[in-house]
Amino acid sequence: MGETGEHARGNECNFMRSSLLSLRRTLREHGPLQLAAAFALVFLLPAVSCKNSGTPPGAGRTPEAAVVAVTTHRITLTTELPGRTSAYRVAEIRPQVSGLIQKRLFTEGSDVQAGYLLYQIDPAPFQAALNNALAVLGRAEANLPPVRARAQRFKELLADKSVSQQDYDDADGALKLAEADVKFAKAAVETARINLEYTRINSPISGRIGRSTITDGAIVTAYQPMALAVVQQLDPIYVDVTQSTKELLRLQKRMAQGQFSPSRTAQSKVRLILEDGTAYSHEGTLQFRDISVDPTTATVVLRMIFPNPQGILLPGMFVRAIVEEGTDENAILIPQQSVMRDPKGNPQVLVVDANGSAQVKMLELDRAVGDQWVVSSGLTLGERIIVEGAQRIRPGTPVKEVPFTPGSKDAAQSEDKPPVEQKQN
What we know:
5 domains; disordered N terminus
């Protein structure tokens, strides 16, 4: 009887389809005049539902799903922090005496060595001042011997009471004054010699010099606010990155709880990603973490140092530093395509319970490692999570488990795969 009923419903559906086709032909051939009659024909057709006229393919079968068991892994935890480069040493070139710039002796943008002559200030007035100081010194030194001899004679005569004490005191005072004049003249000579040397403006450090702010013939003043040029040492070079205090406290808490051990090789495990996304070829070292917090951004500064032999890194470039935090010996990793999101954006997965049915579990994710998520909480060892086929499964329905094969076609086409989520800093 069941087969007879199904056959009858199939005939009714065929009749309905043929009637609808006839209706379409009538409208094309006779136009709108027969529209009312056509609609009457439609409403007089038996209301036969063909929805259940046959059994859809695959109905009644348990859906298959690729599952993977939750295990622990040993991973190295890293943090990606944004920052900018800064020169290792910076020297702003300023004159120490006032005068006329006779010549600029360097090429802008070139590398200079410490002591290299950059500018020459007109030395003539300073040479004249030195000559004048030398003349004053010579006069003071020439006056000293007779004054010293007179004071010595008066000292001998004072013993015989041949001169008064006042005469001796006057001669001794004149000697001390003459000696002071010689010292003053020597200091003046040294000052004049230093000022003459300051007319040669040399580079205090080795590095690359930028553009010159003045030209030949310009008048400069001693210790003027505007620098004549800037020399920067670029090899090695500093990289200053910022880390939020929230992230810093989280790391300290996890370290105190023993969730991971700090890396002993962190000083040699700092890598750099350039602004165009390429990796920098040299590794750097973490020098220190600042002890003060910027109250406007709630961040601390980490300073790193990188070799820069090719001069690829320039001061002010935006970079991303990958800093090694430590090692987690018992990290839980799951494939990214297994994670779904609820309407509020919270991560969740489907797991297969002991009865073979799918159940929802909410997660807390830490960070992405390659094509996997690091799970902070929500899963236990041995649980079986559904990686592929979750779009065909509803919570509570039975599941036929099959092993998960990474890189399969289903994994590549899965609609459940979430976008890669970067770690928040």
